[in-house]
Specification:
Elements lengths: L2 H9 L3 E13 H6 L3 E10 L7 E13 L9 E14 L8 E15 L6 E16 L4 E12 L4 E12 L1
Antiparallel strand pairs: 1-2, 1-8, 2-3, 3-4, 4-5, 5-6, 6-7, 7-8
Length: 167
């Protein structure tokens, strides 16, 4: 067996874990008060045997941004998310080392209000896509997601752009 075969076998397990991190870009109302920040996410992957191109993924994420200088309060704001996702692996040639995928998910997010410094928990969704690169024993991936957290009167929107490893 060559490295590509080993890599493909090890990442097609029914359950696997991963971690990712990267840049988090605030948008809309959040972008008006916050600078670019960071994202850290833990992943639990589940591959249903009956569904060839579909995977499920649970995410636990933390995004944090510092306030801009024009804001009257100091410090940072953050969002902690618990999201269930469906990933669709876009069909490619079997010899391809790069495998694209699309994702969509729904979850709950705890955000800190920049004006009152109070926490609030709301429903949110994310959509995005990425590329998986298979290696021996694990795979790496790069992805971008659009996250929208719904709250009373306004939404928190941001785009995490991350790089991760799956074991």
């Amino acid at each position: 067996m060559g490295p590509a075969t080993l890599g493909a076998q090890s990442t097609d397990r029914s359950v696997s874990v991963g971690v990712s991190g990267g840049l988090s870009l605030p948008m809309g109302d959040l972008g008006d008060v916050a600078n670019s920040g960071y994202n850290l996410t833990g992943h639990l992957f589940f591959k249903p045997a009956a569904l060839q191109s579909v995977r499920l993924r649970a995410d636990v994420s933390v995004d944090q941004w510092d306030y801009k200088d024009v804001v009257v309060f100091e410090g940072s704001t953050r969002a902690i998310g618990f999201v269930g996702n469906v990933l669709y692996d876009i069909p490619t040639e079997s010899s391809s080392m790069l495998r694209p995928y699309a994702l969509g998910g729904l979850g709950i997010f705890n955000t800190r209000n920049p004006e009152t410094d109070q926490s609030d928990t709301n429903l949110g969704l994310q959509v995005g896509g990425g590329l998986t690169f298979q290696l021996s024993g694990f795979s790496t991936f790069a992805e971008a997601r659009f996250v929208n957290v719904f709250s009373d009167g306004r939404s928190s929107r941001y785009v995490p752009i991350t790089f991760g490893v799956r074991f």
